[in-house]
Amino acid sequence: MTMKRAIGLMSGTSLDGVDVALIETDGERVQITKGRNNFLDPLGPTGYRGYEEEERTLLRRATRDAESVILPSDRPGHLPEAEVFVTRAHAEAVERFLADNGLSAADIEVIGFHGQTVIHRPQARISIQIGDGQALADRVGIPVVSDLRRADIDAGGQGAPLVPIFHKALAEAAGFEGAFGILNIGGVANATLIDSRGGVVAFDTGPGNALIDEWMQERENKNLDDGGRTAARGKPDDQLLAWLLQHPFFAKTPPKSLDRNWFSHKLAGQLSTEDGAATLTAFTARAVLLALDHAPERPTRWVIAGGGAKNGELMRLLTTLLDAEILMADAIGWSSAFLEAQAFAYLAMRTLKDLPITFPSTTGVSRPISGGVLSRPR
Questions:
Q1: What stretch of H or E contains 6?
Q2: Model pTM?
């Protein structure tokens, strides 16, 4: 099959901005080359369109308003305004990316548009990612695949995580063997576990950066704990940590996915800024360790990606707890910051080819199914 260019767009629950990534794929393989140390060279160019604080405020308000959603079509409160903004911001990100890389719309086969998650309640068959795929396609002049979770949820799946099939393609391209794990730490953390026979299990492990970011926003008016330095100065509250880890989500058998609103940074309550950051950081790390209770085979090697990979204290805790070889995505030619955007480019191409994007072992859906809504420019 011929490799074609696809763009992926991702705006995560951390609400920091729009990630843009281009890959070449036929929907099954990804175009890569072997570089230094026999690892992969980067898949393709990337870009970013950050959110201003007032834009983040709008998205936070929309997320709060989404709590009153009853039907998937509901758009209460600030959601309509936020949906227009999300679509515009993603269009601006694509236009800037094309210009920066000397590309035109005709050079791109498809765009994978995740949108902005405002609520994820698969048990109620609700998962809303705001963003208008048709409006984006019309503005940028490129076919767009959006609403990638809906078909899976309608078929009884969790609608998440969506990226494991891309993780497996990357692992195969890298030639990794043996039990292997990929941990992506965004607002929520998710893991893809590949056993030595090639079987895949994937699920959300628990909070990622979201609680830490919210804590720092409230206490220090900062968007994150830069490098994990605040947490490193603190001491986790062991009693609170033990209580948090009793949440029934952690005992639930995968496949499973998490709504970031199931946990709140306010649970750290009266702790000092440093101790609160240390407790929430330890919570993220210990939740990953608990996830291994559900692993068919304990990974001997992990690749860590996502914004959390930049948190030095979180990485220190994970290195100690996981007792395995830890590889940072960037160090092996993968993209820590843009892995999910790359995945949505890959998923969009699979949708064009009518290939499955979710599976019983990743989302709990009854059978492998394709998904996504294709919008062609009018």
A1: strand 4-11
A2: 0.85
Q: 């001997």: which residue's tokens?
A: 300
Q: Is 366 annotated as a binding residue?
A: no
pLDDT in tens, 88-131: 999 999 999 999 999 999 999 999 999 999 998 988 999 999 99
Domains of the chain, first to last = 4-160+337-375 (3.30.420.40), 164-332 (3.30.420.40)
Q: What angle do CA 304, 307, 310 make, to 5 degrees?
A: 75
Tell me: is residue 14 an annotated ligand-binding position. Answer: yes
- Is 15 annotated as belonging to a binding site? yes
Q: Do residues 192 and 165 lie in contact, with contact meaning Cβ atoms separated by under 8 Å?
A: no
Q: Return the SS3 of 21.
A: strand
Does 312 show up as a binding residue in the annotation? no
Kindly give the residue spans of alpha helices, DSSP state H, lying in the chain. Answer: 53-65, 79-100, 133-140, 150-154, 164-174, 210-220, 229-233, 238-244, 248-251, 273-291, 312-322, 339-352, 360-363
What's the CA angle centered on 219, arms 213 and 224, to 5 degrees? Answer: 25
Any known ligand binding at 12?
yes
pLDDT tens track for 326-370: 999 988 888 888 999 999 999 999 999 999 999 998 999 999 999
Residue 37: other Cβ atoms inside 10 A = 8
